[in-house]
């Protein structure tokens, strides 16, 4: 018997949290870590880029670099202008930028249709009763 386990209900060897619990916890954290691609692609459009940059770079003491150094395509804040410039040269940033420019994000209608929530077409309007045919 291992010392210090008496009366605790445990056998005294190893244990701890299972891997599946840890995986689930990490997955739920990663869901909110990155912005969705369709939101980022919308912000990268020329008419929205200035507004998105202005909103993202407001002074905020809780964000790195007081929220002044923001990469729109990666949706990430940096400590300094130099860190942002170094990030812009990395392959990870270039890959992300290329992916956002080449792939077209799904529209809301396409997403609803893929989920099976699109408009159904039964040949007539279900709100009005079908017209009677006279013979």
TrEMBL record:
Q: Region Disordered: what ranges? A: 1-26, 87-135
Keywords of this entry: Cytoplasm, Metal-binding, Nucleus, Ribosome biogenesis, Zinc, Zinc-finger
What Gene3D superfamilies has UniProt attached to this entry? Classic Zinc Finger
The Gene Ontology CC terms held by the record are: cytoplasm; nucleus
Q: Which GO terms describe its biological process?
A: ribosome biogenesis
- Is Zinc set as a keyword in this record? yes
Amino acid composition bias (Basic residues), ranges on this chain = 90-101
Compositional bias annotation for Basic and acidic residues: 122-135
Which domain of life does the protein's organism represent?
A: Eukaryota
Where does the record place the C2H2-type domain? 69-98
Compartments annotated for it: namely:
Cytoplasm; Nucleus
The family line of this record is: Belongs to the ZNF593/BUD20 C2H2-type zinc-finger protein family.
This protein's name: C2H2-type domain-containing protein
**Species, as recorded:** Haptolina ericina
